[in-house]
Amino acid sequence: MAPQTLTENPFTLGVASGDPLPGSVVLWTRLAPRPYQVGGGLPPTGSVSVGWEIADDDRFGTPVQSGTVAAPAADNYTVHLDVRGLETAHVYYYRFHVGQWTSPVGRTRTAPAAGAAVSGLRLGLASCQQYDEGYYTALAHLAREDLDAVLFVGDYIYENAINAQAGARRYTDRPLPAVFNHWTVTLDDYRLRYALGKSDPDLQAAHASHPWIVTWDDHEVENNYAGDISQHNDPVAQFRKRRAAAYRAYWENMPLREAQRPKGPDMILYRRFQYGGLAQFDVLDTRQYRSDQAYGNGWNYPGPESENPARTLTGAAQERWLLDGFHASTATWNVIPQQVVFCRRKNTTAARSRLSMDAWDGYPASRQRVLAGAQQAGIGNLVVLTGDVHVHYAMDIKKDFNKPASPTLGVEFVGTSISSGFDGVDKPADWPTMTAANPHMKFYNGRRGYVLLSLDAQRVRADFRTVTGVRNPGAPISTAASFVSEAGNPGLKRA
Predict the structure, then answer these.
(1) What are the phi and psi torsion angles at 201 (to 5°)?
(2) Pick from 490, 452, 450: which is nearest to 127 by CA?
(3) What is the per-residue pLDDT for 166?
(4) Which is higher by pLDDT, 244 or 178?
(5) Cα gap 474→457, rounded to integer Å
């Protein structure tokens, strides 16, 4: 398709960058003049030639690199441009061109050189943005933070039918087509759901401001799925077909490299990033390879099934990759961005209590192997980053959660949702029980927002940011609490 024939703006879904390496970063856009139509208003076959440029300044006075790249119909007219030969630890600006149209300007940053001395890092931790349960106001605030990268740990979309009566967004401002009123199952369904989410101006602003490092959780496919097992035990062949559609749409819409392109229902999403000698990030996928949940996928009492040593949350290959990465690491901080709560969470103060079978509590042997591997590798500064549960937690990772005085092996920061769960409250109804039952839980807040993470050679700091509400746009943001853990002395303290 000739770019000159485009009579409508194709850059309705903005731009993005991601997976920063020392001399490289992925630049993304999607051409969609009519984003709520199948195909985005473009032909079902062919491709469009897209011009691109990257520069040191946002006025593009002297582009550093430029060229053209194809946006093929087979990839839903998306671009995944792996720009190489860039400076390390450097801020760049980028944009795309098609015919008479020019995209918004994006800002990105490459990673430091391997082993380089890095004085500090600032990161955003975000997850869980359900379109029909609230505005993405937190992302507007995240866009204005000074960050090296955003870590998004799952539930970028939700596969459920949109509830236009929920009252969280004023849909009369932008009536939605009927296609969003049913569950997301086919490739076209998933593509349209991403278009809906990416049409949000706050999400576009956050993508245009920082490079994102992403991983998924369950709602990018189906709630609480486990490997090849669907929530409702659909035939495996049928579910794998759905998973293939979901994985393809995910890759198309994220700033990911060709190496992450799925092959049918399989996609390698776990990967590693180095920020000089300061931090190693091991990004996990705890959905694709996990054993089915024991005793159902909700909260239940642990027993022989959940405690079976053969059960896995990561799969054997990914677990080996993670532990090998621990042994090879020379970084001050070893950080694991992943999906579901790592620390134990009892929901009563009784000695025997229900636990979440969907989280690491439902896979204690997996958790123990990871912690044992970290100890054997001499990993002293372990940080786990989590989403999924729509609340903020700050928790110490204990060697033995049954003994509060046992050694602390690391810390976990759980970030609340961007919008999922509507407004939320500072102290949810179960706050007294959860904090009493889990002495390693140092903080619990139920508002919407994100986490600001700061790392240097001495400490990691988490600022838990919250907005007052998401049912209406423009809510202010504040810091609900801040915690630090010192290098070489793991354990959370109020900042």
Answers:
(1) -65, -30
(2) 450
(3) 59
(4) 244
(5) 36
User: Which sequence spans correspond to the domains of the chain?
Assistant: 1-111, 115-494
pLDDT above 70 as % of the chain? 97
Tell me the C-alpha distance between 65 and 54, whole Å: 5
- In this structure, which amino acid lies at residue 44? P
Residues 108 and 86: beta-carbon distance below 8 Å: no
Whole-number pLDDT of residue 180:
79
Q: How far apart are CA 169 and CA 130, in angstroms?
A: 11
φ, ψ of residue 292 in degrees (nearest 5): -60, 150
What residue type is assigned to position 381 of the chain? N
Instruction: Give the DSSP H/E element, type plus range, for residue 95.
Output: strand 91-98
CATH topology of domain 1-111: Immunoglobulin-like (2.60.40)
Range 115-494: architecture per CATH: 4-Layer Sandwich (3.60)
Q: What is the mean pLDDT of residues 435-458?
A: 98
Q: How far, in Å, CA of 121 to CA of 456, rounded?
A: 7
Integer Cα distance of 118 and 327 in angstroms: 21
Strand partners for 68: 51
pLDDT band at 173 (very low <50, low <70, confident <90, very high): low
* Residue located via tokens 């958790």: 367
Q: Is the pLDDT of residue 171 over 60?
A: no
Q: Is the pTM higher than 0.85?
A: yes
Instruction: Name the amino acid, one letter, at 17.
Output: S
> Average pLDDT of the chain?
95
Between CA 312 and CA 414 the distance in angstroms is 21
